[in-house]
Request: fold
Amino acid sequence: MKARVTVTLKNGVLDPQGKAIEGALKSLGFGGVDSVRQGKFFELELTGSDPASAKAEIAKMCDKLLANTVIENYAIEVTG
Amino acid sequence: MKSAVILFPGSNRDRDMVSALTKITGRKPLVVWHADTDLPPVDLIVLPGGFSYGDYLRCGAIAARSPVMRAVAARAADGVAVLGVCNGFQILCEAGLLPGVLMRNATLKFACHDVALRVETQSSVFTSQYRKGEIVRFPIAHGEGNYRCDDETLRRLRGEDRVAFRYADEDGGPNGAIDAIAGILSERRNVLGLMPHPENAIEPAQGGTDGRRLFESVVGALSVAA
Reply:
């Protein structure tokens, strides 16, 4: 099994890197961008075969390490 | 007074801290490797500045989960003085020994210069030899010193007199930190994290000696206790 974890900044948390990327896109002439938020993406190769227990285990990984829940949210997707 | 400096892969201010502690306490601190699981008994534990683990994942995140940090957390719970400077502050937040988080400077620039700080409380083992409201100068050198916490945490930090230092420059500080916070104390007041470097302001050749009293406060508090 594989899992994909997406970590994003919570709403309202200032994202200066996203702002800088937004500015760079604008300077390249991309006019249609209203705002940019930067996040992180993890791919995990899993040894188990039960998606539900994998998801529960990955949620623990997110709470303990992959995300800082003071400022970040996470989403988990387990695929076969 | 016995002290220990914790060394992580990527620490780079550890030798400055060892030098400052040796000069001020009169005893060379132990240097403890991050993979060690036991920590000899000491009166002060210091997490120095640097870029532990190359700031991978988030600054301080990997160091905060290293084996020695379990021992540091246990000592902090026993009331031992723990000081985290710069990357050390980031590690203390990631380890949950202090609330909140340090984010990328709002300017997106690495800030490396002296700053004016206001001492906000005298009531801790680290600040007893300063006067409340006094302005001191310490150097800073960081790219991620933008302190953030939720509203409830900020209310508690203010209400419990746990903001130890604020940036005192008119522009509100070098990194966009909420409420111009430069350093905070734990609930029991024995853990201090701050972005500026007191260990680099201990002798005139460094441009100032305002950092000395932070270490002298700890020495003084311990000699009273002993």
